[in-house]
Amino acid sequence: MTAILFDLDGTISNSISNILHACYLSCQDLNVPFEENTFLSYIGLPLLKTGELVLGKGREEEYYSTYQKHFFATSAANPLQPYEGMIPLLHQLKRSHVKLALVTSKSTRGTIHSLESLDLQGFFDIVVTSDSTKEHKPHPEPVLFGLQQLNETAQNGIFVGDSLHDMECGRAAGTRTGAVTWGANTKEELRTANPTFLADTPQELLDWLLQQI
After folding, report:
1. Computed over its alpha carbons, how large is the radius of gyration of the chain?
2. CATH H superfamily, domain 3-14+83-212
3. How confident is the model at residue 1 (pLDDT cuts 50, 70, 90)?
4. 118 and 87 Cβ atoms separated by less than 8 Å
């Protein structure tokens, strides 16, 4: 049996533009500079960690609450959509009887909102959010926790994500890693993380995953 663990934003959910817009509006509210590439590099980290990087230690909650307000408003105006091909991919894997988990740095509230928007509520065997573990990506604990809940070993695990934080997390946990090029980090950036496989399309990703089962 193989366990496949997926990141959410930038991997399944085409939410990068919503995230960046919420970051921009948050920076405006908080009177701090916004630089798109910098905030792209933060995607995959928990919001509290981003808040610390943006505002400094002790003001994490201020950024968190400001961002949440703007993200939910942005997503109401521009509802979240899956990347084309990702929902069929997930359903085909489900039919292959592999164990599926979601491992995201989003809060539980944000994750539930996203899964409802994508019509994936109740789909995954296990959902790991930033509220599930003490440590967060790029630390391996979220993936290791997901594997533990699935009763699987790292040797049987694959972690699929779009960011360098995802690749570092999966590698540190001892799983194979699948990097997708349609999210936060570029193909060139992802190559530096030496993923097990690099996919340019969901079909390429699916073909590789099916070969691993």
Report:
1. 16
2. HAD superfamily/HAD-like (3.40.50.1000)
3. low
4. yes
